[in-house]
């Protein structure tokens, strides 16, 4: 078990570290928010190319296959 743990630690720590800022925005459906881009200030309307957004797999309540994040 110790050998496996040691191997996992060696594999997961890269030789050169990179710092990432991760913002987790999780909540109920009222946190999702809706709006129109035309309502934004001009400096907020541009697309951000280096910002990936993961929205998951939205499924209606009580339907199968929800919450899988595919």
Helix content: 10-25%
Number of strands: 0
**Order of helical and strand elements:** H
Count of DSSP-assigned helices: 1
Percent of residues in β-strands = under 5%
Strand count, sense and closure of the main sheet? none
Low-confidence runs of at least 5 consecutive residues: none
Shape: flat
Instruction: Give average pLDDT, whole number.
Output: 75
What is the straight-line distance between the termini? 32 Å
Rg over CA atoms: 19 Å
Secondary-structure-derived class = mainly alpha
List the helices and strands and how they pair.
Elements: H1 2-12
3D architecture notes:
With 70 residues, the chain is an all-alpha fold. It has a domain at 35-70. Helix content is 16%, strand content 0%. The protein has 1 helix and no strands. The longest helix has 11 residues, at 2-12. The radius of gyration is 19 Å and the shape is flat. The chain starts with a helix and ends in a 58-residue tail after the last helix. The model has no long low-confidence stretch (mean pLDDT 75).
Task: Provide the descriptors you would attach to this structure in a database record.
mainly alpha, 70 residues, 16% helix, flat, single chain
Condensed summary:
This protein has 70 residues and is mainly alpha-helical.
């Amino acid at each position: 078990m110790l050998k496996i743990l040691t191997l996992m630690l060696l594999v997961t720590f890269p030789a050169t570290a990179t710092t990432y800022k991760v913002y987790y925005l999780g909540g109920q459906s009222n946190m999702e928010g809706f709006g129109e881009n035309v309502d934004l200030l001009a400096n907020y309307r541009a697309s951000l190319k280096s910002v990936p957004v993961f929205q998951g797999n939205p499924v209606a309540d009580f339907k199968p296959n929800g919450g899988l994040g595919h």
